[in-house]
Amino acid sequence: MRAKPEYRDRPDTQVAVLDALGDRPEDGMTVFELRSRVDADIDHLEDALAELKADALIEVTRDGERTVFSPQSGVVGEHEPTDEESLVDAIRRRFSL
């Protein structure tokens, strides 16, 4: 699953985080798992997570000693291509699978 269109106008790192979390909405992901899926350095990833949390788009929970990030319900959904999809979006979608 990918971030819904209304959330795709955010900075690239934030969109990449939402897309990655969309693949595991129930289980969530740790910061280490996100680092392996999102092409960004740790500082940009931390900034993206902080912004997404502040905007109530992700949920942060403690699972034992792990911190797990999950998308809020309604933030991600099935990808439905549109005529407005840009070439860059199509390439990202193709290679993120």
Could you walk me through the main structural features you see in this protein, from its secondary elements to its overall organization?
The chain is 41% helix and 16% strand. By secondary structure, it is of the alpha+beta class. The strands form two sheets. A two-stranded antiparallel ribbon has the order 1-4. A two-stranded antiparallel ribbon has the order 2-3. The N and C termini lie close together (10 Å).
In short:
With 97 residues, the chain is α+β, with helices and mostly antiparallel strands.
Number of helices: 4
The major β-sheet equals: 2 strands, antiparallel
Tell me the span between the first and last alpha carbons: 10 Å
Order of helical and strand elements? EHHHEEEH
> Can you tell me the residue ranges where pLDDT is under 50 for at least 5 consecutive residues?
none
Number of strands: 4
Structural class: alpha+beta
Portion in strands: 15-25%
Helix content: 40-55%
Going across the biggest sheet, name each strand in turn. Answer: 1-4
On the 0 to 100 scale, the average pLDDT is 86
Oligomer: single chain
Global morphology: globular
Q: What is the rounded Rg?
A: 13 Å
